[in-house]
Structure formats: C-alpha cells, structure tokens
Design goal:
alpha/beta; Rossmann fold; Arc Repressor Mutant, subunit A; five-stranded parallel beta sheet; 9 helices; 43% helix; elongated; binds calcium ion
Amino acid sequence: MGRSILIVEDEKEIRDLLVHYLRREGFSPTVAPDGETGWEKARTEEPELILLDILLPGMDGLDLLRKIRTDPATSRTPVVMLTAKGDETDRIIGLELGADDYIPKPFSPREVVARIKAVIRRSAPEPGEAGKKVFVYGDLRMDVPRHKVLLRGKPVPLTPKEFRILKTLLSSAGRVLSRETILARVWGEGTHVTDRTVDVHIAKIRQKIPFLADAIRTVKDVGYQLPER
Ligand code: CA
C-alpha cells in the first residue's frame, strides 16, 4: 500500500474531511486522534508523510514532531504542520524542529493536497540521488568517496564537519534546512552541541568558498538554504 499519509488531528470533522480528499487523490490516509497514537503509527506504519496538528490533547504536535525528528525510524519522514491562524511562534518552532511545511487553519482541503504533493515531490530523491557520490554546484565539485572539494579545480581544505555540512546543503539543495536538522545529520541525534556551532561552521565554509557566501541563504529564525541551480 503506497502513498500512505498519517493524519494526526483531534477534531473528527477535519480528520474526515482530509481523509475524504486524500482518498480522492489516490492516497491511503490513516488517522490518529492524539499525539500518543500518532507516535505509535508513525513508527509502525511508516507513512510516506505525516500531517500533524499542533493543538492536540496530551502530547501536542510540537512534542510529537520533536520525537519524530530524533528517532532514526522516523527522522526522515516529511511532516506538514497544521497551525492555528497567525500563530507565528508555533510556525517558527515547527520549522526549527524540522517540519517540511506548515498550513495555517482554516485551510482548503485542495490546498492541503497540493502542499502534500509538493513536499513529497521535494523529499523524493532524484533518480540516482540516493547515495550520490559527486556533487557539482557551479564551479564547485564535491567528491564524497575521495573526501575532496574542488573549486575551479583547486582543492579547498575543509574540516570533516565543514565537509559534512556542505554535503548536507548540496544534497538538499532547494530545501530550507533548520539548524536542528543540520545538527542531527552532521553531529548525530542527541548532540549537546548548540545551534550556534552550525552558524560558526557555515561562516567558515562561506570564508573558504567565497561564492557560497552569497549562495547559502540565511533563513531568518530557521536555518539555511542553498538554492537549486
Ligand atoms: Ca487540534
């Protein structure tokens, strides 16, 4: 059963509406009325994407998102948050915690379906992208197995952490990466390293590879993005 979407939402009417629209689009929705059930299903059913309401009884959506992002079984599952209208704080926290997108309530089901499709499209590895070994970005070439970065043919000396951060940015070009996501991918889960460390390393990469100084975008309150080219 492909294209399964887990909907974690306590309001039955909204759940039913989403189920109806998602089925019509060929998805296989599954539902959870609270965070605990959502967590259970996220791990056991391995959905293709999780649609997560923030305001839930018991464990709320942000707590659940934190768990999803720190468990190796679920850390890569795309998550789209449903947020109360105009709640900027929830939106920012959600993106910092690694949500892939957010949809303010009230929403049109059509918009939800469109956003879900866009997130799935962005999350799918390009053909041959999984385990990709060489990245080319403008004048920059990264050869992963040889652990080499060349700028116009000249080697750029990067520390192992800088190398891994750059690889993370290159392999997710076009996506906004939160500091938390970068920390998890480069330092691993449960690290005691702070967000500030990511900033310091990004600054070093920008110094060593000047054209990336402009290319790497700082996304206010969230993290970084290397645009596709
Ligand atoms: Ca709710």
